[in-house]
């Protein structure tokens, strides 16, 4: 799962909703001041006790102390905060003044009076489903009463101040904030205000956008390696806060590191992580020296099967990426017998010129593995139809197999193409594949603009093992956890449910012919161990989803917005009841990654 490309902010629009107009006319809401009056009001009155300002679309004049200035990016401006406030915990005492391309002529510590138009800005656009930011547009400083003022004391975010419940249900914009009851309401009530997190543990590593996630609740669902585990749809981990920096510097932090002391600044919001502490004071980084994990090697009688999302790998990537992935396979995974790969791209990557072959991609990776001291793997795959399998445009990502021919045999049955479907053959009660490798029902609408699963028939010490590699539909298009309508819409689940049904049906066909068939279903399923996708996939098959066999605190293959979560899976049929399973944490927790996913491996005694 990826957050998608970052884009410039859309044009800011002053929004005066029909609801507000109707309410003003009927008396169900307070009448709004006339737009031309530029009414002098408090910041808390502008913010109001809901998510949208009662003054939206109108000019107002407010006063406060400048607490921070943002001079770069597409959202230049400054925050001002009333040092006194109205005593109501539901109303924020601060607001962001959006300057756009205009000069910013004030300084931190100045007490100023500003006139501007109140707007509700939706980062990422209103259709993304996220919260709005109440702000002043076209701000004009009317006067500066004093300079060098001390800044208002920050609100301390911690286990005592952030409620355990994440959010109420329904349309949050229509609800009065309850900051002592819901975490999202607490954050919204602090919009623009100075906040502080002390000795903040990093739960989402620094990324290329100079963002990281910390937790203000160290005891909340911790992983053994310092992360915060996402355990269910109703356990969103309320202590997570994104951190960016206004200081001009940013640390390269891994999960488990600590920003020692205090990290403080105004609480902002964007649609790529939600509520964000824009740090004017950044805690000093304490390196926790998180180590990349290494799993043991399989013994002579164990078949080692792994899955690895190699994140849009193609020959135009630097050799260093191939070398790091190769070292991970050889050293960290101890050279598995079979590796299902996801996100292998064609020979020219994102160049969209009709090329679908990926032989150069596989060869370059295999050569890097051999150079790293690993075996000389063979590969099996099927080229997709051009531009039909989703992913990066032009990249033609697909799933495929690496296997070590010194340990494992592959039963080649020709005829499998990008468009014809593999079927189960009954050889007198023994199951076989009509094509090997073969794609599962690739013409079915479940696979529209998505990767098709690949089935292969392997042999290990005289025994047949069916391996089905998958890369289900991504979570793109889903609303974020912090959506303004709760619970958020997860529209992508519909297609993954259809995909899970297809794979489930194929596994049932194998087991109907041969109940003792050895089947491994694995790959990037883009969904959680507690999701409906996994329930659909396992229903009636006896498949065991191996992540759920681990302690809850160790169930994660991916870190997204500070939540350590399971997206990748290995599932085994009842005949494969003897196994040793391991998620090998080598990427997801680190700012320096070879991929954004952690690989995993199972050692089977077939």
Task: Throw out a few tags for this protein.
7 helices, Deoxyribonuclease I, Chain A, disordered N terminus, 6-stranded mixed sheet, alpha+beta, elongated, 13% helix, OB fold (Dihydrolipoamide Acetyltransferase, E2P), 32 strands, single chain, 7-stranded mixed sheet, 606 residues
- State the fourth-level CATH superfamily of the largest domain: Endonuclease/exonuclease/phosphatase
Label the structural class.
alpha+beta
Instruction: Count the E strands.
Output: 32
Low-pLDDT runs:
1-36
CATH class descriptor of the largest domain: Alpha Beta
Mean pLDDT: 94
Distance between the termini: 32 Å
From the coordinates shown, what is the CATH architecture of the largest domain? 4-Layer Sandwich
- In total, how many domains does the architecture comprise? 3
User: Main sheet?
Assistant: 7 strands, mixed
Strand content: 25-35%
**Global shape:** elongated
Q: Please compute the radius of gyration using only Cα atoms.
A: 27 Å
Number of helices: 7
- What is the CATH topology classification name of the largest domain? Deoxyribonuclease I, Chain A
- The percent range for helix content is 10-25%
């Amino acid at each position: 799962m990826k957050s998608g490309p970052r884009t410039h902010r859309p044009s800011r629009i002053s929004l005066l909703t029909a609801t507000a107009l109707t309410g003003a006319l009927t008396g169900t809401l307070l009448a709004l001041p006339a737009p031309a009056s530029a009414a002098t009001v408090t910041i808390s009155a502008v913010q109001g006790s809901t998510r949208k300002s009662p003054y939206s679309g109108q000019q107002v004049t407010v006063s406060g102390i400048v607490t921070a200035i943002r001079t770069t990016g597409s959202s230049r401006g400054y925050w001002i905060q009333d040092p006194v406030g109205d005593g109501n915990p539901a109303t924020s005492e601060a607001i962001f003044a959006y300057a756009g391309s205009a000069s910013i002529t004030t300084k931190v510590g100045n007490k100023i009076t500003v006139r501007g138009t109140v707007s509700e800005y939706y980062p990422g656009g209103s259709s993304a489903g996220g919260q709005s930011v109440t702000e002043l547009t076209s701000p004009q400083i009317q006067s500066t009463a004093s300079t060098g003022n001390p800044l208002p004391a920050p609100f301390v975010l911690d286990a005592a101040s952030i409620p355990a419940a994440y959010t109420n249900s329904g349309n949050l914009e229509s609800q009065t904030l309850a900051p002592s009851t819901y975490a999202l309401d607490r954050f919204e009530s602090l919009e623009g205000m100075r906040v502080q997190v002390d000795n903040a543990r990093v739960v989402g590593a620094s990324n290329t956008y100079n963002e990281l996630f910390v937790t203000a609740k160290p005891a909340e669902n911790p992983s053994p390696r310092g992360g915060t585990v996402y355990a269910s749809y109703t356990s969103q981990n309320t202590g997570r806060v994104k951190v960016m920096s206004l200081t001009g510097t940013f640390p390269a932090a891994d999960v488990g590191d600590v920003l020692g002391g205090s990290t403080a600044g105004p609480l902002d919001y964007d649609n790529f992580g939600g509520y964000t502490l824009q740090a004017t004071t950044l805690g000093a980084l304490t390196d926790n020296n998180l180590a990349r994990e290494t799993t043991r090697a399989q013994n002579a009688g164990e078949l080692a099967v792994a899955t690895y999302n190699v994140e849009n790998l193609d020959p135009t990537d630097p050799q260093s990426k191939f070398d790091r992935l190769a070292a991970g396979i050889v050293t960290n995974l101890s050279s598995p017998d079979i590796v299902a790969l996801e996100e292998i791209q064609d020979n020219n990557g994102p160049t969209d010129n009709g090329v679908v072959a990926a032989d150069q991609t596989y060869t370059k990776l295999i050569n890097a593995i051999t150079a790293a001291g690993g075996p000389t793997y063979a590969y099996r795959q099927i080229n997709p139809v051009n531009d039909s399998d989703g992913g990066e445009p032009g990249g033609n990502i697909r799933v495929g197999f690496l296997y070590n021919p010194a340990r494992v045999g592959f039963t080649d049955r020709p005829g499998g193409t990008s468009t014809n479907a593999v079927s189960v053959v009954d050889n007198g009660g023994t199951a076989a594949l009509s094509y090997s490798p073969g794609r599962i029902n690739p013409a079915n609408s479940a696979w529209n603009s998505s990767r098709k699963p690949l089935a292969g028939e392997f042999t290990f010490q005289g025994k047949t093992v069916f391996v089905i590699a998958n890369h289900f539909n991504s979570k793109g298009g889903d609303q974020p956890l912090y959506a303004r309508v709760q619970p958020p819409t997860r529209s992508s689940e519909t297609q993954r449910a259809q995909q899970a049904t297809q794979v489930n049906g194929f596994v049932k066909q194998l087991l109907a012919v041969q109940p003792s068939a050895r089947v491994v279903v694995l790959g990037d399923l883009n969904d959680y161990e507690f999701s409906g996708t996994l329930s659909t996939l396992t229903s009636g098959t006896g498949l065991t989803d191996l992540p759920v066999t681990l302690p809850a605190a160790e169930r994660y293959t991916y870190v997204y917005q500070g939540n350590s979560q399971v997206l990748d899976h290995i599932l085994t049929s009842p005949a494969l009841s003897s196994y040793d399973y391991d998620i090998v944490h080598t990427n997801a927790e680190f700012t320096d990654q070879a991929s954004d996913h952690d690989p995993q491996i199972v050692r089977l005694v077939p």
